[in-house]
Amino acid sequence: MLQSNIIGIDLAKNILQICHISKHGELISNKAVSRQKLKQILANQQPAVVAIEGCGSSHYWGRYAEEFGHDVRIISPKKVKGFLQGHKTDANDALAIANASLQIGLKTSKPKNEEQQTLQTLETSQLFLSRGITSLSNHLRALLYEYGIVSTVGVKGLTKAVLETLDEASLLPECLRSTVNQLWIIYLNLKTELAQLIKTKNGLVRQLQPCKALMGLESVAEVCAGMLYSSIGDGKQFKNGREASAFIGLTPKQHSSGGKVFMTGIDRAGGIKELRSALYQGALSYICRLADEPKTAKQAWLIKLVQRAGIKRSCIALANKTVRTAWAMLRYENKYKQQPLLAI
């Protein structure tokens, strides 16, 4: 017998499906409700396990359910798919979510708080604007190239080519000059908005106490600190630092059978690619500036590791150690202290 009831929710914009299973394993109800009705059910229901599929607004509903004492479990859609029986319907989806939450060993997530979600939103918005700038610059280069105007590599080359094109009327048809001018104005506005967004995000990171503590780590500044905090949170959903590092994708993949253990490289396709890339770049910057004579135990370890394994593997090792240390700092609310070289 279960300790509490199970509430599986299939989220949507307006009509949501809620599946209610008793602590004895019996199906109580499986019906569609409105957003307001779901809020009433969560508020009036005794503390239960609320299972939600990881999708849009899952963190919002998870935080709302936690306000009334519910145990919220956010489950990956790939893991829910294995418990789907019958056709693809809202009722079957809600039932599959509820059944998945009962499985032993199934990894689930906790809802992000508003600070974490705000940082994550700013990060994804920055990525969106950055890709938009790159896409628009490539479009401008291709447009000018079709009329024999070649721009050199870099922002300066594009700026020079566009301004010269707009100044000389003979380089482009008159009907295209206004179009290029409009595209160029949009490009400049996007760059301004991106700079303002980065400034806002970095200001928020410097205000948050967990992020300020993380910035004490080697190779960690505003970018990595904000992404680490938005991904790991308070660290309670991970048993140890290795789980947090595996979640980000910085631990080797394992393929074992018959008692034989075989370790491969890190999973480049999984994890959080943006955070892994930022940690690698920060580690590379720190390792390339290492002095010949180490001052701390970590610097001595890195110098020996670079000599033995090379710079790239050392960067991954430092990024792995950074995530594990960050998890310990967030989990136990400790400050980072460098280990003196004499303490080895």
From TrEMBL:
Residue span, Transposase IS110-like N-terminal domain: 7-147
Pfam families associated with the record: DEDD_Tnp_IS110 (PF01548), Transposase_20 (PF02371)
InterPro entries from the UniProt entry: Transp_IS110-like_N (IPR002525), Transpos_IS110 (IPR047650), Transposase_20 (IPR003346)
GO biological process terms on file: DNA transposition
Domain Transposase IS116/IS110/IS902 C-terminal stretches: 211-290
Gene Ontology molecular functions: DNA binding; transposase activity
NCBIfam families in the cross-refs: transpos_IS110 (NF033542)
Protein name: Transposase IS116/IS110/IS902 family protein
